[in-house]
Amino acid sequence: MSLGILGQKLGMTRVFNEAGQSVPVTVIAAGPCSVVDVRTPEKNGYSAVLLGLGERKPHKVTKPLRGMYDRCGVKPCRWLREFRIENSAEYKAGQIVDVAVFAEGETVSVTGTSKGKGFAGVMKRWNFGGLQASHGVSVSHRKPASSGASSYPSHIFKGKTMPGHLGNERVTIKNLTVVAVDKENSLLLIKGAVPGAKNGLVLIHKQG
Fold first, then answer.
1. Count of domains observed in the chain
2. Is there a domain that residue 186 lies in?
3. Residue from 111, 47, 50 nearest 85 by CA
4. Tens of pLDDT along the chain (208 residues)?
5. Which of 75, 98, 152, 190 has CB 3.0 to 4.6 Å from 32, enough for a Cys bridge?
């Protein structure tokens, strides 16, 4: 795997391509990220890079983390995320990773936390059709109907599509195209929608 970057989702807009077509894009403030630590197979048993984004007040950081920040000469970060890569020896603590790692037209995957929608019924959560709104159907239009067997096996199987908590899950969208890279303002324009609410943390990975 190759190194990615951390960013904040700013919202959606549109741009026009050379053919004059409107392209919906998500604007992400990507980086610059600091390399806080480097994991090596010799020391940690695997190869990875720990990236940090944003700023955090020093008194809100635990002593072990404060020592790690002091060793690499990086100010405390709001977010820390690890990226598994094949050769972490190419990077060193304190190095800066910015949007220059991506190129226009490149295919990426974006990971974020989806919007939490609270408790939802089966029609909203699982796209059930619901019952008929005709004569004989009373106060049951959005109910899930029968949900289990009677005498055998006398229970509902795990994974049954039922009402429950919707959203607030880690979601990854693959095969998204980078429409534009604004190195001056550290912005990435990615075609289509990405998971999460505005100002939420997202992880952008290179495909492959």
1. 1
2. yes
3. 47
4. 677 899 999 999 999 988 889 999 999 998 788 888 888 888 888 888 989 998 888 888 888 888 888 888 888 889 999 988 888 778 888 888 888 888 898 999 999 999 999 999 999 999 999 888 888 888 888 988 888 777 788 888 888 899 999 999 999 999 999 999 988 898 999 999 999 999 999 999 987 6
5. 98
